[in-house]
Amino acid sequence: MAVKQRIRRSMIFLNTQRAALVKDAFVYHPDCVIFDLEDAVAENEKDSARIQLYQTLKQLDYQGVERWVRVNALDSDLINEDIRAAVAGGAEGIRLPKTETAAEVKAAAQKIEAAEKEFGRTVGQTMLMAALESPLGIMNAYEIATADDRMMGIALSAGDYTRTMHAKRTVAGTELFGARSQMLIAARAAGVMAFDTVYTDTDNEEGFKEELRLIKNMGFDGKSCINPKQIGITHEIFNPSEQEIQHAEHVMEAVQDSKDNGVGVLTVDGKMVDIAWVEGAERTLKLAKAAGIYEGELV
Amino acid sequence: MINSVGRDIPDEYLKNGVEPFQGIYYRDGYTYPKAAPKVSAYVKPTGDKMIASIRGAIIASGLKDGMTISFHHHLRDGDYVVNMVMKEIHQLGIKDLTVCASSLGKAHSYLVPCIEDGTVTGISTSGIRDEIGEVVSEGKLKNPAVIRSHGGRARAIEDGTVKIDVAFIGASTSDAFGNASGKGGQSDTGVLAYADGDAKYANKVVVITDTIVDVPNFPASIKGVDVDYVVKVDSIGDPTKIATGALRLTTDTRELDMAKEVAKCMYYSGYFKDGFSFQTGAGGPSLATTTFLKQYMEQDHITCGWAMGGVTEPIVNLFNEGYIKTVLDDQSFDLAAVASANEGRHFEISASQYANPFNKGAFVNQLNFVILGALEIDTDFNVNVVQGSNGVLRGAPGGHPDTAAGADVSIIVAPLIRSRMPTVRDQVTSVTTPGESIDVVVTDYGVAVNPKRQDLLKAFRQTNIALKSIEELRDLAYQYTGKPAPVEFDDQVVALVEYRDGTIIDTIRKPKSLN
After folding, report:
1. Is the dihedral of CA B16, B22, B24, B30 positive or negative?
2. Which of residues 213-242 of B touch A (CB under 8 A)?
3. pLDDT for position A292
4. Cβ separation of B253 and A229 shorter than 8 Å?
5. In this structure, are A31 and A154 located in the same domain?
6. CATH top-level class for B253-487?
7. Domain residues for A172?
8. Phi-psi region of B62 (alpha: psi -120 to 50; beta: other; left: phi over 0)
């Protein structure tokens, strides 16, 4: 069943054409995998990749790792079969590439619903995520995010976006600042999750960490990955630190104390705190629990 | 007769005191006289050991049909010595020789025509690969090859199972009296550990070098008092294939994850204490384990007392940084190891000191940890490192059975599946190392602990180590590969796998696919 809110720090793209890659990517312990039928797959291998997708979804136990499928673009003649294979195999979600309008999301949702009916799946069980890859997509982010109940999140895809913006990719990522901010605001307003674009310089661990720190602080929920070695690093940065967990625990305990004692002012670690912090503390502990690094009972 | 790992050993190989394998410590306390060499004394001070050619040395040594000759493999894939010697022997028409080598591989391909025409009719070795592995698997060697571990080879030489008539020892440097070393020449090997027993127990000893140095060539791995002849040749090997540059540490996430899990098993085993000892192999995950060990040592403010084995740059780095106090070296794998060998507390040890079960306590007995690879592992934890899943000889026990038997915690690290073949399976093609001596199996899909090690199971259950039973690992592998159909073999036995104590643990037959 669709679980809209869950831990999704890492989403790794897997070329579905490659059996050796898709057979057991769960050993890297990502939160989600994205079986790619789109850009990674050669034009003359689209059919075989789709068959492999179906068999992988049907036959292999992915041990709780969420399975997404990046289908080919809505205007291609491949998407109908892509969606049918993904739904028939029982993928948890479909990632729609190059999304620019709410109408596209609605069109994809209709195709998914038809496939769910065709293959006896529960209608509505297959989630949707939209990749925003153009200025228009970014401008329409909120409408896209709210276009259908299936929407779990929106994701930035920087390659095409940067090109159409006439921008240059920089290490600091200043050229993406507007897009990242705007889509995050849209995602939060729509109540869906937000995912950042891939980091392509797979050998630059420090640069990758810098980018992760940036997007985590901005508020992103997770990162698209292209190499298994990025998964552990992504989790390391996204996981709350021991200090953050302790502070969150203190906040939660202080809330309880103030309720028990009828004290209106919250004091945590010797400092007064705003009641608005409670939500953040709860989120920190939930994330820590989902990541397996917090075993307490406060959430 | 069925031995204690369930393998049927034909009676014809159980003669003259040879017994089937009966447990890893079956021969504890065994008493025997050591085999002494026949020595021709150099009494006159004018004696000259230098001989102008390899052919001259072969003739001088009195090598005849039916004798046994020996080689070491410190020159690894760059070795010229074996082929140079065998070509001369071949041309001299000497037949029916047994070659006792510490390992054989692609550099020794001249043995192939020698096997095919009966120049060589017997082989005993700790490694058998490439063309030689194929020709022996095809049944072209007259007598079954004997596969021995490094410790087993040292034992067989010392207890007289093997009597070496002439040892040919390639050495990086030598003086005119045969004091020889793995350092200071054009083709450095670092140490000459596997040749120690050959020099001490062979009736005739020939040192072959490309670099003659002044007397005395000390410290000497091979002592001149054990050497009959010294031959200078243009080159004993290709330096680029002897000690390679730094073995690149793996960047493969799967291998790194397995290495992390190995280090975690070591850390939580109860044996990870100040002064601990360990040995790792040179394979991807084994080598990478050192990185994670360093992190645990830093975290707990402890150091390693000694590391042993085939020595590699990561070990040398930890040694130079003070994380490892002493290195015991029986083989230098890379340039860093060669440079460090016999400097400071980086000591050369002989194969016997390393692993011989029949001396008065080899270093393997004092190991806390060993990390080893495997081609196949069965649900009784038996390991095969010699025979490919197609039945062809393509591996080396090396020190595998020795260290597994000696170490407090022996850890196998291997991917669960290799190219559609399951590593963990119902039965191994042949047993190299008995499951009795294997404690932990680390794969990319989880970690299995031998049920006889309840202490480790209890300790690991308190951690996030992904524990699975060995049967669960097998089932996971079979989920992908299916159950492999057994390889079909002819009746012809092409090799005997001797356990380190001289008992027979398995036989290897000719695969039908090679007919």
Report:
1. negative
2. none
3. 85
4. yes
5. yes
6. alpha beta
7. 10-238
8. left
